[in-house]
Every structure is written in C-alpha cells, then in structure tokens.
Amino acid sequence: MESVTVARPPEVSAATAVGLPVAGLTAHQALTQPGGIKLDGSGPQANILITAASGGEGLYAVQLAKLGNTHITATCGACNIELVKSLGADEVIDYKTPEGAARRSPSGRKYDVVIQCATGIPWSTFEPNLSANSKVIDITRTLSSLLRVALKKFTFSKKQLVPLFLSPKADNLEYLTKLVKEGKLKTIIDSKYPLAKAEDAWAKISNGHATGKIIVEP
Ligand SMILES: NC(=O)c1ccc[n+]([C@@H]2O[C@H](COP(=O)([O-])OP(=O)(O)OC[C@H]3O[C@@H](n4cnc5c(N)ncnc54)[C@H](OP(=O)(O)O)[C@@H]3O)[C@@H](O)[C@H]2O)c1
C-alpha cells in the first residue's frame, strides 16, 4: 500500500528493513496501543513480560520496550538467553524449566503488560503473575487464542486479554526505520536463503525455532 510506504535510507540494508513493516510494526503497535508504553520513556514504570522473546517478533518487542520506562522479563530457550539480555531484557527465563513454564518473574514482579508471542500458554499460567489492571496482548492470532479472548469477556476481571490485529501506519514505519538508521534497533537475522530455496526457508520459519528473522534473497 502506497500510504504505508516509506523510503529506505541507504544506511539501512534491505535485509534489515524487511522485518520492519510486519514484525516491527506489530511489536510497536502491541507495546504502544493496547500496551500504553511511551517509547520516549516518559510514561509510568511498567513491568513487561515478553514470551518467545528470541523470535522475529519478540526480539523487536524487547528492543522497543527498552526505550520506554520498563522492566522487562523475557522467556526464550537457554541458548538465546544472553542474546535477549544483550538487547535489553532485565531478566530472562528458559521456557523449558519449571520456573520458565510458570512465567514467574525471578524478581517477583507482577506484569502490567504481557506481549504474548508464544502459542499455547493457558490464561491460568499468566493469571497469578499479573497486576490488577494488566493487559495480556496476544499477537499469535491462533483460533484457540481468539476463543480464549471471547471466553474471557464473560468474566469481570480487570485483567484483560487483547488480540492484536496490525493496523500499519507510515509514521510508525518511519519511526522504526529511523531507529535502525541510528543504531537503536537491530534486525536479528537467523539465516538467509536464495529465492530458489524459498521452500527450505518456509520450513525453517514453520518449525518455530528461528532466532529472529529468516530472509529470502533474490
Ligand atoms: N514474525 C512476524 O512478522 C509476525 C507478525 C505478526 C504475528 N506473528 C505471530 O507471532 C508469533 C511469534 O512469531 P515469531 O515469528 O516471532 O516467532 P517464532 O518463530 O514462533 O519464534 C521462535 C523463537 O521462539 C522460541 N520459542 C518457541 N516457543 C517458545 C515458548 N513457548 N516460550 C518461549 N520461547 C519460545 C524459540 O526458541 P527455541 O528454538 O529455543 O525453541 C525460537 O527462538 C506467531 O504466532 C506468529 O504467527 C508474527
């Protein structure tokens, strides 16, 4: 769409820019719109949980959340803990351990905002770890997550489950591009494939174990 197109500055490579229009904007929208995080750091302090923080979405979410006044707890596999910390997470838990499966903050914080990038985590796992007016923002858009949202509407809890549907905006894409140009936001690339091997790239994306983005190049 022309209305959401922005120029790519020469300092920003095509491989780096290609993650911004969907994954980058999704993370930006989740944090700022339902999440209410001000990325200039001017808002009140918020405790955030980002699940699957080592994925294409999660790595953008961690870096953007760090620009706000936040304390970030992240979940990922053991091999990505240092990467996720280096990009801004304050505490990282391995999702394959009992502590990680419970999504409990090691420092005992209750989450004000959850950016839910991992599938199949039941509401009952989050519930005890949430602050009174928290929002769990589900970007996974799976059928079961949408059903959970519908069921949740029948409860009177102030803890909300919010599905995210991307509404792309040129201003936000311009903002993300500027952050990349200034070195404040990185696109982490898991691997690159030539166009002739696009099927292999798709298989890699589909197995749910990529660290960051998979790039297909002409
Ligand atoms: N990427 C996009 O542009 C985009 C845009 C909108 C919505 N979405 C949705 O967002 C969700 C995430 O997509 P994605 O592309 O970011 O990532 P993804 O490919 O699903 O994430 C893979 C990474 O997450 C880790 N991981 C897998 N399951 C986990 C769990 N239960 N807890 C913690 N970490 C876990 C994996 O670690 P291990 O290898 O150690 O298992 C791997 O590093 C998907 O449902 C997707 O449909 C994606």
Mean pLDDT: 94
How widely separated are the two ends?
22 Å
What is the beta-strand fraction? 15-25%
In the CATH classification, which architecture of the largest domain applies?
3-Layer(aba) Sandwich
Q: Which overall shape is indicated by the principal axes computed on the Cα atoms?
A: globular
Strand order in space, largest sheet: 3-2-1-4-5-6
**Total DSSP helices:** 9
CATH fold annotation of the largest domain: Rossmann fold
Short description:
The protein has 218 residues and is α/β, with parallel strands linked by helices. It has helices at residues 14-17, 20-32, 56-67, 81-86, 98-102, 123-126, 143-152, 170-181, 198-206, and strands at 46-50, 70-76, 91-94, 111-116, 130-138, 160-163, 189-194, 213-217.
